[in-house]
Amino acid sequence: MQNRVVMLADFDYFFAQCEELRNPALKDKPVVVGVYSGRTEISGAVSTSNYIARKFGVKSGMPLFLAQRKLEGTDAVFLPVDHVYYDRISERIMGIFRGYATSLEQVSVDEAYLDVTEQVDCSFESAEDYAKKMKAQVKMEVGISFTVGVGPNKLVSKIACDSQKPDGLTIVTPDEVACFLSPLPVDRLLGVGHKISAKMESMGVKTIGDLAHVDIQRLVVTFGRVLGVYFFNAARGIDNEPVQEAGEAESIGRMGTLKQDTRDIEVIMDKIDEQIEDIYKEFCTKNMSYRLVGISVVMTNLSGKSRSKTLEKPIKDKQTIHEVAQELFDKYLAETELAIRRVGVRIGSFVKEERKQKQLTSFFQPS
Ligand code: DCP
Ligand code: CA
Ligand code: CA
User: Fold this and answer.
1) Peptide bond before 314: cis, by omega within 30 degrees of 0?
2) N or C: which terminus of the chain carries fewer CB neighbours within 10 A?
3) Which pLDDT belongs to residue 353?
4) CA of 272 relative to ligand 1 center, distance in Å
5) pTM over 0.85, yes/no
6) Which residue among the candidates 19, 20, 111, 245 is catalytic per the annotation?
7) Residues 6+ apart with CB under 8 A from 40
């Protein structure tokens, strides 16, 4: 099989760059864009800032008063977020990207994967000129700069993109993947947060290269089958996930047989909760929200049924899967007198979501 050429484009200091675009006088000042919670004049958090403000130590998610303190004595400008305006700019850029790719997967307002394998005829050398052309067109037509990572898959292109910002272009060919990944800290891999990186450190694993030396059995025992296998592959830069247009992702589900046929909701939910654990681990590697929860049942007489519910808004948490599944089982049991033999649960209708956005929300709602 021929190699793929996958790009990740991530707009530079996006909200702040949009503000500079409509008011070029901001360009040589520190610019901070924030969400004002309204409690006091300065309560709230930083969404993002331009690179001048970052030099003073301003970071996304930081309380606004702290950003203000860091920028004391400068001619810094603080602005409230204007999502409608940023979305409009984002849509224009995504529109241009469409013309450059066989498939486009928008991950958030300022990020998209492009499969350009055909366009560059599998060549990473051509991909460099191709990315430069794309950057130039967007700069000229929209006025926004962005950073591109190019790799043989989404995992590598994402990490390549993060390695050099702003206005960067980093290309990692299939031959370079191992050397590129091995010195990087493990938390550069999607799905490795504080908890998991602490766990890995206790196993003596600090870098992606260290992770590539851990055998798969140990990873599976420590992190479970889904995550263990994911880490094993990720450490080697292996990722076969396609660049998927919105709405293409299927569902994640599990099905299993109960120890005994039953109508006892508690017994059923115990089984379902085990399945949810498994599903949720897989789901967490995807950086998405779900909008649908479904159940499947097979009765004593071997007849089968499925039920599902679409949620009002996309959700990320685990508890909602349990609650909706229980609601669906309660309803279903009320409709039948038969006992249940096999049960399953699934989530679907995935929506891609900005991972960082969640961090901002959790700033206001300590979890
Ligand atoms: N954002 C937010 N709260 C955060 C992080 C980000 O509201 N805690 C918003 C503002 C950003 C946008 O999402 O402009 C994109 O986030 P990025 O992480 O891509 O950061 P930037 O685009 O701002 O900067 P960079 O140049 O590092 O990509
Ligand atoms: Ca960005
Ligand atoms: Ca981003």
Assistant:
1) no
2) N
3) 64
4) 37
5) no
6) 111
7) none
